[in-house]
Design goal:
Elements: H1 2-5, H2 10-19, H3 26-52, H4 59-76, H5 80-85, E1 91-92, E2 107-110, H6 115-124, E3 132-135, H7 136-139, H8 147-154, E4 160-170, E5 174-181, E6 202-204, E7 209-211, H9 220-227, E8 251-254, H10 265-281, H11 283-290, H12 295-318
Antiparallel strand pairs: 1-2, 2-3, 4-5, 4-8, 5-7, 6-7
Helix pairs in contact: 2-3, 3-4, 4-6, 4-10, 4-12
Length: 328
C-alpha cells in the first residue's frame, strides 16, 4: 500500500506512463496520470476502511479497492476513454436467486462490456464475446494464496499444475518448445487443451510431454523469440519455488476446461465481486457463511489474496515481476 501511495504523485505517475507504458501524447499523459492518481487514492482509502472495520463487511470496500486498481490497468493500456464509456462492473450477481448451501455452487454472470471485460482484455489480450455464467467452483481453485484453506475446508484441490518449459534443439535440426509435467501422471498427456497457457502444442503421450512445431533459428535466443508465440505469458503464475535452484525451474499454470482465461488477477477480482454483492444484498446469507466451514477460507482470502492482487498490480504498473520474500 505504501508503494501504491506513490501513484498519487502526478509527476511520478506521468513519468511511469512515458518510460514504462510508452505514452507519447503530453495531454493524454497528464489526463491519465491525474486519473490514476485519483483511482489509487480511492483504492487506498477503501483498503484503510476495510481493515479498520470488522471482517464481516470488509469484502465490500475490498472489492471496490480492487475495482479501482483494475481501472488503473485499463488506463495504463491506453483505454481511458473506453473506460469512461463503460463504467459499470461488467458482471452481475443474481440477488433474487435462491442461495446455495455451498459457497462454491454460487454463480457470477459476466458481460461483454464494463470494467471486468476491459480488465480481462488488458490481462489476456482476448475479449469476452458473449454473456456467460461462471460458478465459483470453476475459478476459486486458481486463487493460489488460499489453496490450503480450499483443500482443508472445501475439499477442493488447487487448479494449478507445476510444469517445466524449455527450448530444445540445435541450429542444424531446429528448435522446439517442450512442455513437461513436473509431477507424473497429471493430465498433460491426456488433454493439452486444458493448459490454456500454451497454444499450438501437441501431446507426446508416452513421455508425458507436449511439443511445438520445429523452427529454424541461428541461435537459442532467436529460437526463444520465435517460439514465444506458443506461450500466453499472462497465464504463467509467478510463484517462487524457494527450494528449487535449477537454472530452468518449474512454473505453475492453470488447468481448466472453462473458456475464461484464468490470468492470476481474474479469479481474485471475481471472488471479491461476488462477496461484495453478498454484503450489500444478502445479509442473511452473509451470516450463514460466517457460521459455515467457508468462513476460515474467506478470512484468509481477505488478507492473502488481497495482498497477492496488490503485488500483481505493482508488477503490472512497473512491468516487472515483483516477489515479496516469504509471500508464499
Amino acid at each position: 500500500m505504501t508503494w501504491i501511495e506513490g501513484l498519487q504523485g502526478v509527476g511520478y505517475t506521468a513519468e511511469l506512463l512515458k518510460s514504462v507504458h510508452g505514452f507519447r501524447d503530453k495531454r493524454e499523459i497528464e489526463i491519465s496520470a491525474r486519473s490514476i492518481s485519483a483511482l489509487a487514492t480511492n483504492a487506498l482509502n477503501l483498503l484503510d476502511q476495510a481493515y479498520s472495520g470488522i471482517a464481516l463487511v470488509s469484502f465490500l470496500p475490498l472489492y471496490y479497492a480492487i475495482s479501482n486498481l483494475s481501472k488503473i490497468y485499463i488506463v495504463t493500456a491506453g483505454l481511458r476513454t473506453t473506460l469512461a464509456r463503460q463504467k459499470r462492473h461488467g458482471a452481475n450477481y443474481d440477488v433474487d436467486k435462491k442461495r446455495s448451501h455451498s459457497l462454491l455452487n454460487e454463480n457470477v454472470n459476466i458481460h461483454t462490456q464494463g470494467v471486468f471485460p476491459l480488465f480481462y482484455s488488458v490481462l489476456t489480450g482476448q475479449s469476452i464475446s458473449c454473456k456467460r455464467k461462471i460458478s465459483l467452483k470453476s475459478f476459486y481453485p486458481f486463487i493460489s494464496p488460499i489453496e490450503h484453506e480450499l483443500s482443508q475446508f472445501q475439499g477442493l484441490q488447487s487448479g494449478l499444475h507445476l510444469v517445466f518449459v524449455r527450448v530444445n534443439g540445435d541450429t542444424a535440426s531446429g528448435f522446439r518448445l517442450i512442455l513437461e509435467a513436473a509431477v507424473p501422471h497429471t493430465r498433460l498427456a491426456k488433454d493439452i487443451r486444458g493448459y490454456k497457457s500454451f497454444v499450438g502444442l501437441r501431446t507426446d503421450q508416452p513421455r508425458q510431454k507436449a511439443i511445438s512445431p520445429t523452427v529454424q533459428a541461428s541461435s537459442i535466443e532467436e529460437a526463444i523469440e520465435l517460439l514465444s508465440g506458443h506461450i500466453r505469458r499472462s497465464l504463467l503464475y509467478c510463484r517462487l519455488v524457494p527450494s528449487d535452484s535449477r537454472p530452468n525451474p518449474p512454473v505453475f499454470v492453470p488447468y481448466t476446461g472453462a473458456n475464461l482465461l484464468m490470468a492470476e488477477e481474474v479469479p481474485i477480482w471475481l471472488a471479491f465481486f461476488h462477496l461484495s454483492n453478498i454484503v450489500r444484498y444478502s445479509p442473511e446469507y452473509l451470516f450463514r457463511l460466517k457460521d459455515s466451514k467457508s468462513w476460515p477460507l474467506l478470512l484468509a482470502m481477505r488478507k492473502h489474496a488481497l495482498l497477492r492482487f496488490l503485488v500483481l498490480f505493482w508488477s503490472h504498473v512497473n512491468r516487472q515481476v515483483v516477489h515479496l520474500k516469504g509471500e508464499w
